[in-house]
């Protein structure tokens, strides 16, 4: 899976251990998710080509600097993706933001969209799609479908953990998507949770059940 980039780093492994730990408090969990999200988007933006030169003056001398132009649209798959959003935007402050509310309904065995809000000009814009966990990948595949219906450009997904089957499912339907993650989980249990995973990211971020 060449489109999947596993960001293996001692600091990320250290932080992932705290995210997995059920005794990590919610406020700590939120802060670590933000820290990990910054590193993931740093990697996702590594090959960014849209830069323009600008003349500036340091305290010592005049010089040239670079500014990002045509910034990506950062899209959160609610609600767990919102836990990553501020951190990603802090790294790309000129980026605009979109939101997709979507979930998998276990009774109808299909995804249900309840909210979709994008900036006006999305055509051909690169997308950074945020979702902390990819398990069955039903919701993220549906989200990518919707984005492509709007004619967006390249889509990059940042996710803290992803299942092997979920990644295969995404790339089956969308082989052009790039995915950046900290670790690939081999199992999903009967309730659809990653194993060993870290539980329900939304519940742990926002102290809900």
UniProtKB/TrEMBL annotation:
Pathway: Pyrimidine metabolism; UMP biosynthesis via salvage pathway; UMP from uracil: step 1/1. Keywords: Allosteric enzyme, Glycosyltransferase, GTP-binding, Nucleotide-binding, Transferase. The keyword Signal does not apply. Its cofactor is Mg(2+). One of its GO terms (molecular function) is uracil phosphoribosyltransferase activity. Residues 6-208 form the Phosphoribosyltransferase domain. This is Uracil phosphoribosyltransferase. It comes from Bdellovibrio reynosensis.
């Amino acid at each position: 899976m060449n489109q999947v980039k596993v960001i293996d780093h001692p600091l990320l492994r250290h932080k992932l251990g705290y995210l997995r730990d059920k005794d990590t408090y919610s406020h700590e969990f939120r802060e670590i998710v933000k820290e990990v999200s910054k590193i993931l988007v740093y990697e996702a933006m590594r090959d960014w080509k849209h830069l323009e030169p600008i003349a500036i003056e340091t305290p010592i001398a005049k010089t040239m600097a670079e500014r990002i132009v045509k910034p990506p649209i950062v899209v959160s798959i609610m609600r767990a993706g919102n836990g990553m959003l501020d951190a990603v935007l802090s790294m790309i402050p000129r980026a605009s933001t979109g939101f997709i509310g979507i979930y998998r309904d276990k009774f109808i065995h299909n995804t249900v969209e309840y909210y979709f809000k994008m900036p006006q000009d999305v055509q051909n814009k690169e997308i950074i799609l945020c979702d902390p966990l990819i398990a069955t990948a039903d919701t993220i595949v549906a989200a990518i479908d919707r984005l492509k219906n709007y004619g967006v450009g390249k889509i990059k997904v940042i996710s803290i953990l992803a299942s092997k089957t979920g990644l295969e499912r995404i790339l089956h339907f969308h082989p052009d998507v790039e995915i950046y993650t900290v670790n690939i989980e081999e199992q999903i249990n009967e309730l659809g949770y990653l194993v060993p995973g870290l539980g329900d990211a939304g519940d742990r971020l926002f102290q809900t059940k």
